Amino acid sequence: MGKLADGYGALVAEYYHCPSDDLLYVRWHGHLTAAEVVDGFRSILVWQQQLAPRRLLLDRSRTTGEWSEALPWLNFEWLPAASAHGLQAVGYVFSADLPSRHDSEAFLQVMRGFVPVELFGSSHEALAWLCHPHKAKSALPA
User: Fold this and answer.
1) What's the mean pLDDT in 59-85?
2) More confident residue, 91 or 98
3) Closest-CA residue to 44 (of 8, 71, 11, 81)
């Protein structure tokens, strides 16, 4: 559906819309900076405004990088806007990169105040939960 590249042309994020599941799937790539994370979430917000998906899958399994500087913008700008556009559930696939995980955990803690969030080890598990929440359970502790 769409792609986001950095200033050098390297892929940062891919966006897929699954209308039958009312889902926006975002697959992140590479070493993410705070600026790239904000740009990526700005694109998510544009897709949310256009398509109004109720479910969001954030797949960070292919990324590294610390982006804690993006957290205030995500917490105070993106989250309220995403909620206002009808976001109802988020499946989150962690990166294996430990510094990235710390930033993700801080973001997810705040996100839980707005929408249900589950953590997963793979996008397949996250999709199963998002598309059939009564059948699948998170593989990771909340």
Assistant:
1) 90
2) 91
3) 81
Residues 6+ apart with CB under 8 A from 88: 54, 55, 115, 116
Per the listing, tokens 């109802």 go with 88
49 contact partners, CB below 8 Å, separation of at least 6: 85
Both tokens of 87, joined, read: 């976001």
| Helices of type H across 24-132 | 34-51, 71-73, 79-84, 98-111, 123-131
> Residue with structure tokens 């989250």?
79
pTM over 0.85, yes/no: yes
Q: What is the pairing mode between strands 23-28 and 11-18?
A: antiparallel
Residue 70 has pLDDT above 70, yes or no: yes
Report the Cα 108 to chain-centroid distance in Å: 10
